[in-house]
Design a protein that fits this description.
Distance between the termini of chain B: 40 Å
Radius of gyration of chain B: 24 Å
Structural class of chain A: alpha+beta
CATH topology of the largest domain in chain A: Nucleotidyltransferase, domain 5
Strand content of chain A: 25-35%
Number of domains of chain A: 4
Number of strands of chain B: 0
Number of strands of chain A: 30
Largest sheet of chain A: 6 strands, mixed
Helix content of chain A: 25-40%
Largest sheet of chain B: none
CATH architecture of the largest domain in chain A: 2-Layer Sandwich
Largest interface: A-B, 25 and 19 residues
Oligomer: heterodimer
Number of helices of chain A: 15
Number of helices of chain B: 8
Shape of chain B: elongated
Radius of gyration of chain A: 28 Å
CATH superfamily of the largest domain in chain A: ATPase, nucleotide binding domain
Helix content of chain B: 55-70%
Order of helices and strands of chain B: HHHHHHHH
Chain lengths: 606, 240
């Protein structure tokens, strides 16, 4: 069976991992970093993803997308509270958020697909084979629409998503594999944009989720905003300058807020410094950990409610939890650790890298699916109750939250009027009494034969599969005929749209590749120019003047090539520089300065 | 649980939907898989949950054993282990897992287990009235009036009056809780009684009638329990 990779598609960072002879391993990029920032920049030269895209957050904020996970499976109304924090423009079409960049619009799954493609390329380069199959993690509290959107993203990226797996449970797999733990564990997962709590029972290789809860809109981003809001207020007070209309400075503020928060996990106080636009001066602010904790206390408290509900649903007292596992970068905050410790009455575990443990677990699950690991089995649950709207706009629950998946429920439907030919069904997800307070998943029409009222009997089966995704089938009980149901998702891309986006993705793949090659060639050219100038400075006197002339000419040619859009020309010019500097390199080889040239290869640059 | 009961209904192996393998048409004699072609077999949707999990139809069950059986069958059926198989096998695995999960969830909880068993034995207990007995009914009515009064109180009212009413509701709450505990204790006594009768099934002629009596009382308590639980929840919500 073809290899299956495990992917953690995070709000802030994403990772890809695979099973390497029995142990999961995260794949690092050329820079040695395992984290790929979940940032996509659409530049004049094409698409850039990850670390290089991060630079564009400030350079072209309105064309650089970050935290797109917050928009997956959401409508515009769902996120209107936080729109002011995002420099890029959003609108809605067909119940799906669209991100406007220049004259193009992208759905969140398309942006996520760009990140997935980057990860796919990274794995293909590392493993030397094509990657087509994947396991992708999602927050446990993601609803059906958000899961479906993640699956769509995989498809658009050319990845078959064999399984959508919950992040805290993925973490428990990696944790359980390493620690051989038995008993009850609580996984507290506070990431960049989402919060999950899962209570699991680990016994003889079975990982049974007893209950899960969370908030798909609570994470590190929200902590950053609290700090950023303070900075904005202080900048206004100290400098009389309103940053909000300036998207680039807003990004600087946001990034500095994030950095200050990270530093305060180690230090008791930190200095935040922000360069304001010309003439506005430099903002400098000392932030203490106490101050940060006062600013964000309520956010941490917001995570404890779901913890208590999960414990109650699991029928477990906090003291009965054997181990508490921390996942997600935000759990590095001392306040979070303190409050979690107080709730469970024991020190949480954090000896596994909280940034990598989810991806590692996804790789373990991938290995299970490919038939590798046989002794571990994850029994997960559905986080939200599933039901249908009944008379009077009330939700009637069919599958309760925290039911082990796969789960199914059957419901019989009939008609109220003679000759009625269809019954309308509205599928909901959530815990509230009234239909309107819950998440609308889909609406569809059940076809019924025209008969006297009450005579038709149509049995509808609602099945939640192991991905937590709903499938609906209907059967006419009298004839035994099954009917296919066209479910129109309330907040999701239609199948046709996904198809179109897959097509576009392949069409743009060539363009994207060209853009990528150009960016890489340019980066390499810049490095070589710099290194050669440096080598000439140090070793120029050791070679003949005509050699220096040849080198200078080749450098000028490279400068010229770098300005073009032709990556082949740049590569040729690079080769020419390498040829003309051959002797210089040899001469330098003996000198203590030889490193200057050896370092010129971009592949060896950090 | 007392393991010495000799239960005729006991099945140790899982019942298949049909005795012929859907794939190779040979007779299925293995537990969950065809012995000849090793294909997974669909579990019958009509199968009761006790049989599905290979447990006797009793109200007190060994939860450790239930869990062990659930885990074993999960390992046999879970879709994770059918990723490389045909679509037909994947679909069977999905259906079997969903059924198994429902069966386990139902039997794990003693109340759900009893309600489920009542449903299975419906023939014996279906003609039972499900209205609460008169004394409970009156108690609940009186309480609901108090609750209404309490909710209608305006903030500007005499705090003494509020306190009196609150104290009365609190006393009601405690007495209802006491009643709930008594009901539960009686319920578990009846579970024991049912299980003993179940073990004697077929041994003497009066067992069937005795079983019916026990089931009726269980059903009464279960429905009263629901009444009570709703009003207690109401109380808790109002008193805060």
């Amino acid at each position: 069976m073809a290899r299956i990779v495990g992917i953690d598609l995070g709000t802030t960072n994403s990772l890809i991992a695979y099973m390497d002879s029995g142990s999961p391993r995260v794949i690092a990029g050329r820079n040695g970093r395992t984290l790929v920032p979940s940032v996509v920049a659409l530049t004049d030269n094409g698409l850039i993803v990850g670390d290089p895209a991060k630079e564009y957050l400030v350079r072209s904020p309105e064309r650089t997308i970050y935290s797109v996970k917050r928009f997956m499976g959401k409508s515009l109304a769902d996120v209107k509270e936080e729109l002011r924090y995002f420099p890029y423009r959003l609108h809605e079409q067909g119940g799906v958020i669209r991100i406007q960049i220049g004259d193009k619009t992208y759905s969140p799954p398309q942006i996520s697909a760009m990140i997935l493609k980057e990860l796919k390329l990274r794995a293909e380069a590392h493993l030397g084979e094509e990657i087509r199959k994947s396991v992708i993690t999602v927050p446990a509290y993601f609803n059906d629409s958000q899961r479906q959107a993640t699956k769509d993203a995989g498809m658009i990226a050319g990845l078959e998503v064999l399984r959508i797996i919950n992040e805290p449970t993925a973490a428990s797999l990696a944790y359980g594999l390493q620690k051989k733990t038995q008993g009850l564990i609580a996984v507290y997962d506070l990431g960049g944009g989402t919060f999950d709590i899962s209570i699991l029972k680990l016994k003889n290789g079975i990982f049974e989720v007893l209950a899960t809860n969370g908030n798909t809109h609570l994470g590190g981003d929200d902590f950053d905003r609290r700090i950023a809001d303070l900075f904005l207020k202080e900048i206004r007070a100290q400098h009389g300058f309103d940053v909000e209309p300036h998207a680039d400075t807003m990004q600087v503020v946001r990034l500095e807020a994030e950095q200050a928060k990270i530093r305060l996990s180690e230090d008791q106080k930190t200095i935040a410094a922000i360069e304001l636009p010309p003439g506005k001066g430099r903002f400098r602010y000392e932030l203490t950990r106490d101050q940060l904790e006062t600013l964000t206390m309520d956010l941490v408290e917001h995570t404890l409610g779901p913890c208590r509900i999960a414990l109650k649903d699991a029928g477990v007292a906090p003291a009965a939890i054997d181990e508490v596992v921390l996942v997600g970068g935000s759990t590095r905050m001392p306040l979070v650790r303190r409050r979690v410790q107080e709730l469970f009455g024991k020190a949480p575990h954090s000896d596994l890298n909280p940034d990598e443990v989810v991806a590692l677990g996804a790789a373990v699950q991938a290995d299970i699916l490919s038939g590798g690991t046989q002794d571990m089995l994850l029994l997960d649950v559905t986080p939200l109750s599933l039901g249908i709207e009944t008379m009077g706009g009330v939700m009637s629950s069919l599958i309760r939250r925290n039911t082990t998946i796969p789960a199914s429920a059957k419901e019989m439907f009939t008609t109220y009027v003679d000759g009625q030919t269809s019954v309308d069904l509205h599928i909901l997800q959530g815990e509230r009494e009234l239909a309107k307070d819950n998440r609308s998943l889909a609406r569809f029409q059940l076809k019924v034969p025209p008969l006297p009222a009450g005579v038709p009997r149509v049995e509808v089966t609602f099945l939640i599969d192991a991905n937590g995704i709903l499938h609906v089938t209907a059967k006419d009980v009298r004839t035994g005929q099954t009917q296919s149901i066209e479910v129109k998702p309330s907040y999701g891309l239609s199948d046709e749209e996904v198809e179109r986006m897959i097509g576009e993705s392949f069409k743009f793949a060539a363009e994207d590749l060209k853009a990528r090659q150009l960016i890489e060639a340019r980066t390499e050219a810049e490095a070589i120019l710099k290194a050669t100038h440096k080598a000439l400075g140090h070793g120029g006197r050791l070679i003949r003047p005509e050699e220096i002339a040849a080198i200078s000419a080749s450098l000028a040619a490279l400068e010229a090539a770098r300005a073009t859009e032709d990556h082949r020309a740049i590569r040729a010019a690079i080769a020419e520089v390498e040829k003309t500097t051959h002797h210089l390199a040899e001469v330098l080889m003996d000198s203590t300065l030889k490193e200057a040239l050896e370092n010129k290869k971009v592949s060896e640059l950090p | 649980m007392d393991q010495t009961h000799n239960i005729p209904a006991r099945r140790t192996e899982l019942q298949m939907a049909r005795s012929m393998c859907w794939h190779c048409q040979s007779e299925v004699t293995g537990e969950y898989f065809c012995e000849r072609c090793v294909k997974v077999q669909p579990v019958s949707k009509e199968l009761d949950y006790f049989t599905c999990l290979g447990l006797p139809r009793l109200l007190n069950i060994d939860t450790e054993e239930l869990e062990a059986r659930f885990y074993k069958l999960s390992r046999a059926f879970h879709p994770d282990f059918f990723q490389n198989k045909t679509e037909a096998e994947q679909s069977i695995s999905l259906g079997n897992s969903a059924l198994l999960n429902t069966a386990y969830r139902t039997l794990k909880d003693p109340i759900q287990r009893a309600e489920y068993l009542l449903g299975l034995e419906a023939g014996a207990a279906k003609d039972i009235r499900t209205t609460p007995p008169a004394d409970l009914f009156e108690e609940i009515l009186a309480l609901q009036e108090d609750l209404e009064e309490f909710r209608a109180l305006t903030p500007g009212r005499d705090p003494g009056e509020v306190d009196t009413l609150r104290a009365r509701l609190k006393a009601d709450y405690e007495s209802l809780q006491q009643r709930q505990h008594e009901m539960e204790a009686r319920l578990f006594e009846l579970f024991e009684a049912w299980d003993t009768l179940q073990a004697r099934e077929g041994q003497d002629a009066g067992v069937r009638a005795k079983k019916d009596t026990v089931l009726k009382e269980i059903r009464d308590i279960l429905s009263n329990r629901t009444y009570l639980r709703n009003i207690v929840n109401d109380l808790v919500a109002t008193l805060g």
